[in-house]
Amino acid sequence: MEIVVISSVNEAQAECFTHRTAIVIDVLRATSTMITALQSGASGVYPVETVLEARTLQQEGDLLAGERFCRKIPGFDLGNSPEDFTPEVVKDRRILLTTTNGTRAIHKALRADNVLAGAIINASACARMALELKRDIVLLCAGSHDDFALEDGLCAGLFIDRLQALSGIAVETDDFGAAMLGLYKNASTRILEPLHRSSTGKRLLKMGYGRDIERCGQIDSSIIVPRMQGDMIVQG
Asked: For the domain with range 2-228, which CATH number is right: 3.40.250.10, 3.40.50.620, 3.90.1560.10, 3.30.40.10?
């Protein structure tokens, strides 16, 4: 099995995804929020790239959710904090979600045979499902704006570690993947530290979202695996 790691959404080329399973990673916070929304009973998450598209697609009963520059979009029902997506708010509701990088990364990955949403909180469950799909795997780190994000690379290393352990066979990865595996192994017992030190983490802390970092850094706290089916992300 081969694992390719893409450092940011801007580095993603269509041919990277052909005949593969893609795991899209946006730890802080889009994919962590998708997992939380489905765990809280949302009927599905519809990832859209623009605010206008979200407003245009909204139907009765839908919730608009999203952020730009880590802030809730004015007029939207929800932001991009997992704390917002409680069962009382989202149960049985469809969520139209647009974020700076995460939902864009989902759309970039659509050429893959399968598209999963991965994060630190569902790493083992998501790795297990990816192995069951019996395809080579591409890990797409969404990044922050146009750049690599440390927290996504750390999570990619966690995924490689889990994929190796669960498969019981040697896996091949590229140089960037090997570097991210090393990053994870060096931080595996103190994973919250690099999350707080990352550029995104510092920004969230400054804006008062420290609880999001704590929540998004809990390894394997969820068994929910969001999976793209048609235009919607649902529980896999």
From this structure: 3.90.1560.10
